[in-house]
Amino acid sequence: MESTRTNKYPAHCDACDRYLPAGQGAWAHGNTYCGVRCEEDATRRAQERINAEVEARRQLQQTLIATAVTPETPQTAELMVKATNGRVTSLADLQDANAEDVNAVMIAVAKRDSANRTRAKREEAKRTNTCTRCGGAGRADKWERTGSICYKCNGSGKDHE
Ligand SMILES: [Zn+2]
Ligand SMILES: [Zn+2]
User: Fold this and answer.
1) Which residues lie near ion ligand 2 (Cβ < 5 Å)?
2) Which structural domain, as residue segments, surrounds residue 143?
3) Number of domains forming the structure of the chain
C-alpha cells in the first residue's frame, strides 16, 4: 500500500480517533492514520460498507420482484419501460438493473398502487353513495372550528344530494 507521508499538522486518526501531533501519523489520500494498521482497518471498513450497500440493493431488488411487480403483466412491463427509458423491460432485466433503475421502478409501482387505491376508494364511495370528504359522517365535533358540518356534502354524509 502506497501510503506514508507523515502528517504536517496535528490531527486525529481517521480510524481510531487517537490524537496525532504533527509528524507522528501517516497521511494518505486525504486521511490521517496512526499507521498502517489503522489505514488497513479503514480500508476494510470502507469495503464492508460497500458490501452492505450492495447487499441492501440486492434485497430491495428481491423484495420488489417478489411483491410489487408480480405478476408480470403487460401493464407492469410498460410501467418499467417508461420508468427506466427502456432499460428495464421485464423482471429478468430488473434482476440485473442498476440501483437507479430499481428505484425508478419502485417509485413508479408505488405511484400506480396509490392511484389504484384512490380510484378504488372513489368507486366505493360512489357505489355506497358516501361523501368522499367526510366518509359519511356529515358532521363532527373535531370540525367545530369550521362549523362542524362537512362542506362537501353539507352534513348529509352522502355523495350526491
Ligand atoms: Zn488509529
Ligand atoms: Zn361530507
Assistant:
1) 131, 133-134, 150, 152-153
2) 129-161
3) 3
